Amino acid sequence: MSVKLYMALSIVAISVSAAVAGETAGAQNSAAPLPLANRGPLVAIYGLPLAQSGRLLAVGVQQWQLGLTVGNNFRIPVRDNEAIYLDGETSNARLGWRRGFGGGLELAVELPVVHHDGGFLDSIIDDYHRIFGLDRADRDLVPTGQLHYQYNKDGEVVLRMADEGTGIGDLQFGLGYQLLQGRLTRQKRWLAARFTLKAPTGDSDNLYGSGGWDGSAALHWADRQSWSR
Fold first, then answer.
1. Which of 47, 140, 176, 223 sits CB 3.0–4.6 Å from 198 for a disulfide?
2. What does the pLDDT look like over 77-105, one tens digit per residue?
3. Distance, CA of 71 to chain centre
């Protein structure tokens, strides 16, 4: 059977941060990207690495960050032995803290709060598709503002969620190491390695967490030298 995949995704992201104990904090944060990753409700629970700057915080500088992402999901893929139905909106609010230490190290802690509901972006996305003549991807066949997340495998329902809810997500601990320091190389380029460990503090039955310990590793590169001209 051929795979049918209809998906429409809208992401709204807001990030507010405050860094203290160092005049270099503003310069360090000015080039940081929005901390985004895949926000699909069946994927985000595994704590994928977020987009971050390749420049870690200087020694003694600490930063508090409050972030909010809202993902509107509509997806109906069907295969021979499985089916996924995603129609709803998931918000993820994150409170994070990180601090720079000697030896090019950075420690971080982040606690998310997850909310699932029918959302408010359905009509906005429908209007956008209609105005620009885009395929509505069968969104017109389902009610607006509906929450329905379901996963079937081998004819059995593995997961089904239709009730709105809010809960604490999985607590994450992060360790960063500065592999390349722009100041030392006299170049405006930085490379950092980050490792994350996620604890199962969120309820997996309600898609607030994965239900297990997860780890991730990522390389982040910041380059102001190549684009300085």
1. 47
2. 777 888 988 999 999 999 999 999 999 99
3. 9
**How far apart are the C-alpha atoms of 89 and 148, rounded to whole Å?**
9
**CA 181: distance to chain centroid?**
26
Burial of 131 (0-12, 13-18, 19+ CB in 10 A): exposed
Instruction: Name the burial class of residue 143, with classes exposed (0-12), middle (13-18) and buried (19+) by CB atoms within 10 angstroms of its CB.
Output: exposed
pLDDT in tens, 147-194: 999 999 998 999 999 999 999 999 999 999 999 887 665 678 899 999
Dihedral pair phi/psi, residue 104, rounded to 5°: 70, 25
Tokens of 210: 């994965």
Residue 122, pLDDT > 90, answer: no
Residue 127 to residue 132: CA distance in whole angstroms: 9
Instruction: Pick the closest to residue 188 from 226, 221, 224 (CA basis).
Output: 224
